Amino acid sequence: MCFDARPQVKHDERAMDRRGLSYPLIVVGVAALVLFANLGKPRLWDRDEPRNARCAAEMLARGDWIVPTFNGELRAHKPVLLYWLMLSSYSAFGETEFAARLPSAMLGVATALMAMTMGRRLFSPRAGLWAGVILATSLSFDIAGRAATPDAALLFCVTGAMAIFVRAALPSRDRTIESGANEASFKMPGLLGWSGVYVMLGLAALAKGPVGVVLVVAILGTFLLVASGGDSGFVARFHPRRVLAAAWRMRPFALVVVVAAIAAPWYVAVHVATDGAFSDEFFLRHNFERATSAMEGHRGPIVYYLGAALVGFFPWSILAVPLALESRRALREGGRDALAVKFALCWAGVWIAAFSAVSTKLPSYITPAYPALALLAGLYVDRWLDGRAASAARWMPRALAALSVAGVGLGVGLPLVARRYLPGDEVLGLVGLIPLFTAAAAWWQLRQQRTRATATTLAVGATAFVAFVLGFAQVRIDRRQTSEEIAAFVRGDADGPPTFVAFRDLEPSMVFYARQTVPTVFEPAEAAEVFERTSQAYLLASGDAVEELRRRLPGDVEIVARRPKFLEPGELVVFGRTRETVARRRSEAAAHTAKSPANERR
């Protein structure tokens, strides 16, 4: 017996070692494929990407690591972490689209890897693998990981805080928790563990402000109350005495000290450097007002984020019902999976509920909850592959049917949308073939009872879908952007350094590609004064303002370029003087100077 058992143990250890190496490589490979494919090819998309990218460029030009500015004015929308990362990227790769997006892509790969490590510790190595792959191939996660915005930085910091907590507090599946053990048996992190969590929260405060700190603390506090409550009811679990006790066990003094040590120096420095202007605008307008009133028209009902999650977590949102059923089953069974499911549910539930109560709503606000959904999805796939998912027989065919319906919807809907906004690009509807063919192939595998092949087909289809949408379709749509084209035309047309000026409306991408501050004027008389001051002025205006401007601009100023607006009706026109006009004006000025009385006396 001993002789037979020992080789089996060695075989299991060797298999575990191979998985320990191959699983991270798979997750990194999938994440890198979808996040880096054609990363720098699309131009920056209005409005947030060029604002952030140009802000970092202006800070780099000034050698200023404290005060963020865009177009020469204070930019108090977000804190500084993203700009610091961009500054480093610009120093290595130049001020390009790739360099602006590189920090987000790298953080995205790291976040997928952390999701894998959490899934491995909470459930199993295979569940961890699937959690990482599922997160890396979900739509909103990949959008965040390919954009020059702070979303990926916040996502990384939140996931990092959770990963450190899991490492410090929740026992590994290979150690203390066995099936049927006390589901609440977890170790409260010590000072070092909590400090590690709070280091990530300090970075989160630099990434997007107090939201990351407050919500992660709320999530972990809720989990402590839920996990240690035993059979207590809801009211008993959240009794004020227990809430205060849980808060004390989270080392609040360490929270304040660590977060302040990391984030406070910059917040104090920018407050002093701007005479409090940054603090007033950032905390009052972009945090308090955004929470209490819908800003910039971004509002929605209380259930807004249910629909947003179905789209943002696509294509894996087709597993929503079986995932929910299997999570409920795990909770009822108890054992080692129940505690981990509670942790993931607290993470996703608190985050989504908090933003559902906020007045301003955007789909990207709940992206930091997607790693929790990926953990639950990874558990479901792991149980399904083991034959332990009781809901799979009924719900997997329905999930594949939902995937095929989504494919048909994309195949029909996208050409109709393209016909209106992107005429000539109706071919984008081909993206619907990917989920459609994936559903068909997975259905065939499922009918053959090839569960592993079915799951692999879904993963390959998800990878192909997001890679096609973000690596090909976005590039094709991007061809219609005009800001870089206009900036290049103006620089080529001007007989010297050009001066860009906008009339009333200014797209942020124009500032990035103009590589200079672009002032905005609001009256035709102001526009005329610009042309009186310099012969190298170029005025950017909407096509519906042409007649209004022509009545006031100098007679030798004409339209030198026209381009259609991007994804909206109308056109963008550029007023300026042609090279011939500029040369004639210079000749006339030189002749006038030569005939002046002073020159005649000489």
Characterization of this structure:
- The protein has 602 residues and is mostly helical.
- The chain is built from 26 helices and seven strands.
- The chain has helices at residues 2-36, 48-62, 81-93, 97-122, 125-136, 139-145, 151-169, 191-208, 210-227, 234-237, 240-249, 252-273, 277-292, 304-312, 320-333, 335-357, 370-386, 392-421, 433-447, 451-478, 483-493, 508-514, 524-533, 546-550, 579-594, 597-601, and strands at residues 69-70, 73-74, 499-503, 520-521, 537-542, 558-564, 571-576.
- The strands form two sheets. The chain has a five-stranded mixed beta sheet with strand order 4-3-5-7-6.
- Helix 3 (81-93) packs across helix 4 (97-122).
What attributes does this structure have?
3 domains; disordered N terminus; 67% helix; two-stranded antiparallel sheet; 5-stranded mixed beta sheet; D-Maltodextrin-Binding Protein, domain 2; mainly alpha; 602 residues; globular; single chain
Task: Record the SSE blueprint.
Elements: H1 2-36, H2 48-62, E1 69-70, E2 73-74, H3 81-93, H4 97-122, H5 125-136, H6 139-145, H7 151-169, H8 191-208, H9 210-227, H10 234-237, H11 240-249, H12 252-273, H13 277-292, H14 304-312, H15 320-333, H16 335-357, H17 370-386, H18 392-421, H19 433-447, H20 451-478, H21 483-493, E3 499-503, H22 508-514, E4 520-521, H23 524-533, E5 537-542, H24 546-550, E6 558-564, E7 571-576, H25 579-594, H26 597-601
Parallel strand pairs: 3-4, 3-5
Antiparallel strand pairs: 1-2, 5-7, 6-7
